[in-house]
Amino acid sequence: MVQVGAGKDPWGGFRRGFSGTTMLTLKDFGITKNLGPASASLEMILDVEGVRK
User: Is the pLDDT score of 46 beyond 90?
Assistant: First the structure.
């Protein structure tokens, strides 16, 4: 994960954002059916924003 930003928001809170990626394959989940080369793996993108309380 990489921090993409942090700071005060217009409502007086403090926010911090993160972004990360990972690659998943069907075989990782026990799926052995051949769905073609475009379905062999996928990229998962995760963007998270948190607000300090």
Answer: yes
